[in-house]
Amino acid sequence: MAKLSLGSTFSIFHSRHIRPPLAGCHVTEMTVADHHPSLEVVGGARDRFLPSLHTNLRLPYNPFPLIAWNRHVETIFASFFRSIPQVRLRRECLRVKDGGSVALDWISGDHRRLPPDSPVLILLPGLTGGSQDSYVRHMLTKANGKGWRVVVFNSRGCGESPVTTPQFYSASFLGDTYEVVKHVGARYPEANLYAVGWSLGANILVRYLGKESHACPLSGAVSLCNPFNLVIADEDFHKGFNNVYDKALARALCKIFKKHALLFEDMGGEFNIPLAANAKSVRDFDEGLTRVSFGFKSVDDYYSNSSSCDSIKHVKRPLLCIQ
């Protein structure tokens, strides 16, 4: 069920997507090539963006044989059998205002090879993801092959990023994103900045775009597999085969947490460190640690106030969403 959208001034929804457009959007339908029989254009930027999209979307999407009939099969196949491109990375550890740290992984040698005005692409992986993941590596190498300067934003604890304070990242916290974008922009002031986010990284990216609105320093962004509504995403996690992903992500969160457990051993109050350390679901981890760290009354309060579905209407930069 694919959905494509460019917004907030411009959006395209693939006709096969069964969910309705976001509330409050003005929708105009139009027909293009047979491969894309119905597109919905939202906002007033169709004259600016649609001609190039019309040209580039002419080629059909040819899914990988045998596995494309089921999204779970595709996901599992990619996890176990997809190659991981070998790339030499140069790590930069960035200390942020509250004393925490994130890791920025650049392609080694690009600072000498690429001109200073080359476009910069910031990659925001999904929950527990980092520059070691195959989907990140493939995007990194493809973009770099087109002449883009690419940097992977490894959040606190992810991708072996150091944890220097008793706080991880969350869907609600935008502070690190602000600082990373500002830092990258200051390093390459002649370049246009862009960003791509996956899953939770996409949710954070869209929230950042909405908060910055007209002042956003990014020239454009792409949101991939964004949950948009974390309350609904949490409910879906407990249904059917999605339980497998929930448990896998919980194990990954616990693995990261246990590496840095000493930082949290004296945490009192509402923190439930044993629950976080032995979480069987993402919700367990968020109940034990995340929602308390960021001052939410409950996990549902955290999810409802951290969803990007409420932010997208404020986005004023070109945004492509692929679901």
TrEMBL record:
Domain named AB hydrolase-1: residues: 119-259
Molecular-function GO term, any one: short-chain carboxylesterase activity
One Pfam family per UniProt: Abhydrolase_1
SUPFAM superfamilies xref list: alpha/beta-Hydrolases
Matching InterPro entries: AB_hydrolase_1, AB_hydrolase_4_sf, AB_hydrolase_fold, ABHD4
PANTHER family: ABHYDROLASE DOMAIN-CONTAINING PROTEIN (PTHR10794), ESTERASE_LIPASE_THIOESTERASE FAMILY PROTEIN (PTHR10794:SF84)
Protein name, per record: AB hydrolase-1 domain-containing protein
Organism: Gossypium raimondii (Peruvian cotton)
